[in-house]
Amino acid sequence: MIENENKKENCSVFFSGGIDSVSTLVSVIDKKPLLITIWGTDVWDYNTEGWSSLKKLAEEYSEKLNLKNLFIKTNFRKFIYEHVLTEKLLKGVIDDSWWRGIQHGIGLLGHVAPYAYKYNITTHYIPATLNVKSQKGTTCGSCPEIDETVKYADCKIVHEGYDKTRIEKAAHIVRYFKDKGQAMKLRVCYMDKGDKLNCCECEKCFLSMMEILSEKVNLKDWGFDVDEKTLKNIPKFLKKHSNPSPINKEIWADIVEKFKQDEKYWKKQKAVKWVLKYNPYKK
Ligand SMILES: [Zn+2]
Q1: What distance in angstroms lies between residue 197's CA and the mean position of ligand 1's atoms?
Q2: How many domains does the chain have?
Q3: Is the pTM here over 0.90, yes or no?
């Protein structure tokens, strides 16, 4: 490890605008982290509209929270053939893709190294996707055991948020901004289509909406431009298109459980009362 001569301690955090990312930002906000947003990971490099909306969102956060941004453009998902590596190296070893099983955590962290030296960053936070419970039995390549062994330029890595489920992260976010009298838009969608923050038509959007809605807020304020009809029709969509993975099953179970904590209130919410009885595996 290289000792950096300038001892002023700065920190940074990956920022993508999603629930994991914003929850980590809220957790470390007192340390005034530098927001690092990477173009070429969730948003592909050809999606200039998508990038400009993500960039704008990152700038809105830094402006509201009095932080600074760092934007990095990368081709790290393109200079290797992910599918070939998945086929040739991982088949029969782990049931996962090169991106999810091997590359994404360490690959993303590599981008921070030169800036850690340049800006004297002594701690970089990578938001956890999974948690202690949901990581079990998965082969996701981003976890504390791997990410936190990465060290460079006097900088250590913290895999942040591993102790929280997504529903807990959603509450953590909403309550923090509510206390400040604010609401912040989120960008949770993987569809990477155009300049929309969220397509509001996929399972990832739907489950994120319900996580945020469980805090009894107006979804439009949080980046989800949906009406009552769309909310009502979610079970119909999920019946055909849901991904009944153990992780999604757990996420939905957490949502249902949270809604049940105030059954009386949610029974009156016509557009979403279906959540109280939702079972992702029931076809
Ligand atoms: Zn979506």
Answers
A1: 8
A2: 2
A3: yes
Asked if residue 150 and residue 27 are part of one domain, the reply reads yes
155 and 81 in one domain?
Answer: yes
Residues 235 and 148 occupy one common structural domain: no
Q: pLDDT of 188-205, one tens digit each?
A: 997 767 778 899 999 999
Q: Are residues 105 and 207 in the same domain?
A: no
Q: Are 126 and 142 in contact (CB under 8 A)?
A: yes
Structural domain boundaries enclosing 110? 10-160
Q: pLDDT by residue (tens digit) across 99-115?
A: 888 888 999 999 999 99
Distance 207 CA to ligand 1 centre (A): 10
Residue 168 lies in a domain: no
Say yes or no to pLDDT of 209 above 90.
yes
CA 276 to ligand 1 center in whole angstroms:
22
Please tell me the distance between residue 193's alpha carbon and the centre of ligand 1 in angstroms: 9
